[in-house]
């Protein structure tokens, strides 16, 4: 099989490419240039796609003896990931750019280009497993290493994309991957992992958004409308946030306050007590299924953060929409986040959260 190995310049994608070669595939290494003004050197474990990263990927490809190319997808990445990220925050939502990158770049733009050039599949260094069923269909499952599992950010893949995706590291724990890289003589064996948002290299999301959107001072209010303080941009706040509120006076009951709502139209941030954050029902749109869409009400596990806890739930799909009923309250569910549904270790699919609420009648019925 002819395979494009996406090589970021890190240890995971290096070992993934090597394993694809060991499996007998005809492999070509490709580094995605995603920045329109790539830095020369990586300054920290944050960020990626520097010229240094491209050089590290090329060095590994040379060691492996495979062709290597840099594909410029900076314009597409800016439009589909960065601009989307900015627009979502401006609208009072909390997006996950890694899911959008996997959906729009790595398993759309990259895969489409690979197929157009005559390749059969794409391999990446993501920690997840693809399991082939007896009927030849493929399923997406959690990685064996729970600390590195990335199935959540791959929950946007559909069956056709899974049919042409390889994740060679899904059956391995991260320390073993580093040991393998060192045994193969890869320079990147001890290179720090990238984390946080790759295009915000200093990790200051609030500052980055402020530069992108400009300051827009407004009110921080209590649920009854009482003004408690000021903010410099509602886009810098997300539901469930406690730190950085800068309130002028404490709550009368002394309880900590959290962001419970962001109102972009009024440019207000609403704060309240922790009990106002608990929800047990989620509505999602832009549903993506890693196989056939569920029929009727199905029992699932629901996860709303990349490395968050999975909660027991029931879900019902209705076209592009999905309703999720949780068996217990969970906190800090923000519009724009993704809810990813599981059946055991298998990823059923995902949807973008547009609303969440507390249905007390359901609690009383239990």
TrEMBL record:
<feature type="binding site">
    <location>
        <position position="32"/>
    </location>
    <ligand>
        <name>ATP</name>
    </ligand>
</feature>
<feature type="active site" description="Cysteine persulfide intermediate">
    <location>
        <position position="198"/>
    </location>
</feature>
<keyword id="KW-0963">Cytoplasm</keyword>
<feature type="disulfide bond" description="Alternate">
    <location>
        <begin position="101"/>
        <end position="198"/>
    </location>
</feature>
<keyword id="KW-0820">tRNA-binding</keyword>
<protein>
    <recommendedName>
        <fullName>tRNA-specific 2-thiouridylase MnmA</fullName>
        <ecNumber>2.8.1.13</ecNumber>
    </recommendedName>
</protein>
<dbReference type="Pfam" id="PF20259">
    <property type="entry name" value="tRNA_Me_trans_M"/>
</dbReference>
<keyword id="KW-0819">tRNA processing</keyword>
<dbReference type="InterPro" id="IPR014729">
    <property type="entry name" value="Rossmann-like_a/b/a_fold"/>
</dbReference>
<comment type="function">
    <text>Catalyzes the 2-thiolation of uridine at the wobble position (U34) of tRNA, leading to the formation of s(2)U34.</text>
</comment>
<dbReference type="GO" id="GO:0005524">
    <property type="term" value="F:ATP binding"/>
</dbReference>
<keyword id="KW-0067">ATP-binding</keyword>
<feature type="binding site">
    <location>
        <position position="125"/>
    </location>
    <ligand>
        <name>ATP</name>
    </ligand>
</feature>
<dbReference type="InterPro" id="IPR004506">
    <property type="entry name" value="MnmA-like"/>
</dbReference>
<feature type="domain" description="tRNA-specific 2-thiouridylase MnmA-like central">
    <location>
        <begin position="208"/>
        <end position="272"/>
    </location>
</feature>
<feature type="site" description="Interaction with tRNA">
    <location>
        <position position="337"/>
    </location>
</feature>
<dbReference type="Pfam" id="PF03054">
    <property type="entry name" value="tRNA_Me_trans"/>
</dbReference>
<dbReference type="InterPro" id="IPR046885">
    <property type="entry name" value="MnmA-like_C"/>
</dbReference>
<keyword id="KW-0694">RNA-binding</keyword>
<dbReference type="GO" id="GO:0005737">
    <property type="term" value="C:cytoplasm"/>
</dbReference>
<dbReference type="GO" id="GO:0000049">
    <property type="term" value="F:tRNA binding"/>
</dbReference>
<keyword id="KW-0547">Nucleotide-binding</keyword>
<feature type="domain" description="tRNA-specific 2-thiouridylase MnmA-like C-terminal">
    <location>
        <begin position="281"/>
        <end position="353"/>
    </location>
</feature>
<feature type="site" description="Interaction with tRNA">
    <location>
        <position position="126"/>
    </location>
</feature>
<feature type="region of interest" description="Interaction with tRNA">
    <location>
        <begin position="148"/>
        <end position="150"/>
    </location>
</feature>
<dbReference type="InterPro" id="IPR023382">
    <property type="entry name" value="MnmA-like_central_sf"/>
</dbReference>
<feature type="active site" description="Nucleophile">
    <location>
        <position position="101"/>
    </location>
</feature>
<keyword id="KW-1015">Disulfide bond</keyword>
<dbReference type="InterPro" id="IPR046884">
    <property type="entry name" value="MnmA-like_central"/>
</dbReference>
<keyword id="KW-0808">Transferase</keyword>
<comment type="similarity">
    <text>Belongs to the MnmA/TRMU family.</text>
</comment>
<dbReference type="GO" id="GO:0103016">
    <property type="term" value="F:tRNA-uridine 2-sulfurtransferase activity"/>
</dbReference>
<dbReference type="GO" id="GO:0002143">
    <property type="term" value="P:tRNA wobble position uridine thiolation"/>
</dbReference>
<dbReference type="Pfam" id="PF20258">
    <property type="entry name" value="tRNA_Me_trans_C"/>
</dbReference>
<feature type="binding site">
    <location>
        <begin position="6"/>
        <end position="13"/>
    </location>
    <ligand>
        <name>ATP</name>
    </ligand>
</feature>
